[in-house]
Amino acid sequence: MAGSPTGTGDAGVTADAGGPAVPGARPAAGGGRPGGGAAKAEMRERLQGWRAGLADHWVRAWSLDLERHLLSYPPASSPRTVLVYAALRREPQTSGIAAALALRGAVVALPVVSGPDLIPRCVPQPGEGLDAAAACGPDLHPTEVDLVLVPGLAFDRTGRRLGRGGGHYDRFLPRLRPDCRRIGLCFEGQLVDAVPVEPWDQSVDAVATESGVYAGGAWSGQRG
User: Fold this and answer.
1) Predicted confidence (pLDDT) per residue in 51-77, tens digit
2) Cα–Cα distance measured from residue 189 to residue 182, given in angstroms and rounded to the nearest whole number
């Protein structure tokens, strides 16, 4: 089986492989900062530096709070099939989410990088150690997925997303069914007022953090 699971959506890809908007895609919502490589590069550098300074205990604690909010958010509470990224060290951790949704009956898959594309590949036994070795089941078509948990370096509260520059999720998300839920995961420190956008950039339906869930700019959840 070709390809390897990715952590953040564009992990392992250094060049920006963005392209024209795909017909039928759900582009970033209007009203964001103007696009452009310079604005994105500055924001990436700033957020990468912030994330690199996170202590492991904060990542663990915030990830548990995020997990609690996400699993109690109705659109994410009981999918039939969920695509969960394999988290890098200082990203919101996803192994607990995957295990909990599997116990609720969901089929869990990881995104596998195959050239410019992402392929959902099933994880027969999701849980601790959600990594490349775990994705050893059959491949799925994107239209079989009901919920996608999307990583990112930055999000804003209306769902605009900044990835690492490879464009994998911007190419993958338009291939989902229109009713598939896309939820970005990040820490509160990665929320910005407005993400720089370009025509091909894809947005998410909601953003989950350690403080709650933002959907359509509104916040739900309980602090603490």
Assistant:
1) 999 999 999 999 999 999 999 999 999
2) 20
* pLDDT for res 76: 95
Where would I find the beta strands (DSSP E) of 58-205?
A: 81-83, 107-114, 117-122, 147-150, 154-156, 161-162, 181-185, 191-192
Q: Rounded distance, CA 70 to CA 79, Å?
A: 12
- Could you tell me which residues come within 8 angstroms of residue 16 by beta carbon, excluding any fewer than 6 positions away? 37, 165, 166, 167
Q: What is the pLDDT of residue 220?
A: 62
What does the alpha-carbon distance between residue 133 and residue 153 come to, in Å, rounded to a whole number?
A: 25
CA–CA distance, 8 with 2 (Å, rounded to integer)? 19
Structure tokens at 74: 């109705």
- What does the alpha-carbon distance between residue 67 and residue 159 come to, in Å, rounded to a whole number? 18
- Domains of the chain are 4-9+32-120+129-220 (3.40.50.10420)
Mean pLDDT of the chain: 83
pTM surpassing 0.85? no
Cross-strand pairs, 98:
none
